[in-house]
């Protein structure tokens, strides 16, 4: 496999001269800033947000580098992982010409981004045990296939994808393999970010929205080669991570012990919830999970979902998703929330 980014990057992106702000052109501290047409008097808030943020969120990347063991130059920060997904399409896929491969059932934004960017989507369904169909993927790849998206642990099924199967793709595909690890903190599996030096065509997505509990801040991460990260930085809006999100993310990233405690508690609650759900006669199966949610096969998914909504409990109905017929996806809540769910389900009369 001879991956060369120049063979897959769009010509207009290769030739793109990115927007440059004064904050890009000037490094260091100044005493007077009269460059960016900001309000020099401050903000009508306790904290002043009148100055534009660091375009590269370097302080956050530096802290992430310490936690993840990856140099800052290999980290991109986006407005959620969704921004990183969109930039992959805009940078590497020519609209109306190129295609990408997804492996359903999987995260829905890959398809939405493909449709927004007018990029053909090829679906190669997972196997019955929710693993990659490598033969099917190999058959689907053609000269215009630029990206393959793999979610591991997978949403909505919760399982991790076999590592050796992903490595097979990385070693043999001349495009980019995107591994979405939004739920990796809950998994026993090792992250692929340690493999960045092995595979030039690897992009790993992670997020601060799940285990880190910062969903409202919208901070997603992409880890990749310096070449690929440079493309991300070229295409992104100048100030894509706002100052409040940068400050709060930096503060949160000092509290790894709290997050680790919550992960342990979540896994303990997940195990207990599985035991309690198995006692309900309308539950047919609960699939093994490496995430902070479980996929539950039931006798009447729509009716159970509607019953819970009527009782003020919101879960995700996956009944109409391919290979997830009859299934509900349930996020692991607090002990009290999980107990309320079980008590409510016990009163369901199917």
From TrEMBL:
Enzyme Commission no: 2.6.1.9
Pathway: Amino-acid biosynthesis; L-histidine biosynthesis; L-histidine from 5-phospho-alpha-D-ribose 1-diphosphate: step 7/9; Lipid metabolism
Enzyme class, broadest EC rank: transferase
Glycosyltransferase found in the keyword field: no
Cofactor: pyridoxal 5'-phosphate
InterPro entries: Aminotrans_II_pyridoxalP_BS, Aminotransferase_I/II_large, HisP_aminotrans, PyrdxlP-dep_Trfase, PyrdxlP-dep_Trfase_major, PyrdxlP-dep_Trfase_small
Residue positions where N6-(pyridoxal phosphate)lysine is found in the record: 210
Family: Belongs to the class-II pyridoxal-phosphate-dependent aminotransferase family. Histidinol-phosphate aminotransferase subfamily.
Protein name: Histidinol-phosphate aminotransferase
Species of provenance: Pedobacter puniceum
Source lineage: Bacteria, Pseudomonadati, Bacteroidota, Sphingobacteriia, Sphingobacteriales
